[in-house]
Amino acid sequence: MADQARTQENSDASLAPATGTGNATGEGSRFPPRGVPVIHGINRIGLWSLYIKEVRRFLKVQTQTIWAPAVTTLLFLVIFTVALGRTGREVLGVPFATFVAPGLIVMGMMQNAFANSSFSLLAGKIQGTIIDLLMPPLSEGELMAGIVMAAVTRAIMVGCTVALAMSLWPGVSLGVEHPWVVAWFGLMGAVLLALLGLLASIWAEKFDHNAAVTNFVIAPLSLLSGTFYVIDNLAPAFQAISRLNPFFYVISGFRFGFLGESDIGDTNTAVLGAAAGLGVLNLLLVVIVYKVLKSGWKLKD
Predict the structure, then answer these.
(1) Which of 35, 225, 260, 262 has its CB surrounded by the most CB atoms within 10 Å?
(2) Count of CB atoms situated within 10 Å of the CB of 178
(3) pLDDT per residue over 69-124, tens digit each?
(4) How many C-beta atoms surround the C-beta of residue 227 within 10 A?
(5) Would you give the DSSP letter of residue 228?
(6) C-alpha span between 140 and 231 (Å, rounded)
């Protein structure tokens, strides 16, 4: 009996550290003491999981999220080409269809980046599943990065789809003069709208609020940013207003990458200035969105 008792005692002692029943400081335990973070630096697995979850969400309905925007944008090209380009009209020294195509591509990218990021948190708030995003061990920066990266991924997919469709349209030439300009302004435009969409989803309490931002802010800024015209044709007052619109620099810079000419100027200095300005604006928005997420405004109330 004594031998059995000693055997049981030794067994209990050997199990104690493995089950976390050691001393209060956590010595001899496989688990860290309470309050000591397990994940140091960036939670790469959590960030990647959130990104994949967001990408799979819009890919499950890709007919609506990828192909439908491409068809809608192509219809814009068809309508404006038929209405304004039949007489051989040229803008910036190229046929009207070639002039308008880059602006339509990046406009579709921006609008879909906004649509994707603005849905993420808002759907969770309305459906009561927001806890699934707030409870995992993700920092505010990681949460923002995962949602923004997924929105940019959707924007790139839409842009490639639209470009492919437009390249098949008669009279459209999508030769690229400056690849880095196309990549930079396309990325900056997608990030800009993804961050604005994330802000909108934090503020909105129902889908009507989000639709209001889309209809009364995003759509007008996109359509009145020089997508279908050069701002030199406008009155001086309206030219000044257009130059205050960040969408104007995204669309004109993206167009410069294809045509080598745009409203912001034909010199590399003007283009570099616009590129740097968009980068600074996006950094400012990153700080604002991070602080709003950190405060928990309208998310943890």
Answers:
(1) 262
(2) 17
(3) 889 888 888 887 777 656 667 888 888 888 999 999 999 999 999 999 999 889 88
(4) 21
(5) S
(6) 40
- Alpha-carbon Rg for the chain, nearest whole angstrom, is 26
β-strand pairing of 90-91 with 94-95:
antiparallel
pTM for this entry? 0.84
Residue showing tokens 């129902």? 206
Q: What distance in Å separates the CA atoms of residue 268 and residue 271, rounded to the nearest whole number?
A: 5
How many whole angstroms separate alpha carbon 184 and alpha carbon 282? 12
Q: How far apart are CA 244 and CA 222, in angstroms?
A: 13
Q: How far apart are CA 195 and CA 281, in angstroms?
A: 11
Cα-Cα-Cα-Cα torsion 293, 132, 120, 290, nearest 10 degrees, comes to: 10
Specify burial of residue 290 (Cβ count, 10 A radius: 0-12, 13-18, 19+).
middle
All structural domains of the chain with their residue ranges: 44-295
